[in-house]
TrEMBL record:
InterPro entries: His_Pase_superF_clade-1, His_PPase_superfam, Phosphoglycerate_Mutase. One of its GO terms (molecular function) is fructose-2,6-bisphosphate 2-phosphatase activity. The keyword Ligase does not apply. It comes from Nocardia panacis. This is Histidine phosphatase family protein. The keyword Manganese does not apply. The lineage of its organism: Bacteria, Bacillati, Actinomycetota, Actinomycetes, Mycobacteriales.
Amino acid sequence: MEAMTGAKSSVRLTLIRHAEAVSNIERTIRGEKTCAGLTERGREQALHLATRLRAEHHREPISAVYSTRVARVRETAEPVARRLGLEVEFLEPWRYHQYGAAEGMPWTALRRLRWENPLLQRRDVPVAAGAETRDRYRASIRVALERLVETHAGQHVVLFGSVENITASAEVLLGLSADARTRTKMVIDHTGITRWCIEPSPWAAGTRRAVLIAHNDTGHLSGDLALHCRELGG
């Protein structure tokens, strides 16, 4: 993990996307103020996830559960935290991307805007009035990860978020360039589990490296609950 120093012990980070939400069915951009939460299928997905993590907790204890404040994310994290005997915690930098005036817009409309106006494809340009740039969001996620690694040395932490959280985390942890998202894509399904280990680097004393252990693991879902997602965000 670039520029992270003072490594003493490893930290396990399990990043999980929220379950199916109303906004996913609508295919619209919904943040903290307008998210309507999970669908019935999403709530069932969250329960299956909770059962799986409870079983894993016996083998490798989970020390903390964090969530963004968006309803669909909180509603996924809460049953997991209850099964683990923990409270859902919030860390301000670990949050949803602020889309400003684009909130409520269909994802297809946003994609069309970016296609018609190449300037909006830049990481340092907001997509709408009141929105934040992707660079600013990535910086916020970096701060969140740095704080979590420092706070939870030697522990296993679960972070619930959206596509934006998990994608930005990968960019930070892998040290990807600013234009990586224009050349690559990460598929992240509902309740998909991505696992990282932030460990002392064997190559440079006092620094850490990020090890990707698993990505988009949905082995706890089957049948109608196992849906493959291709949304741009959310």
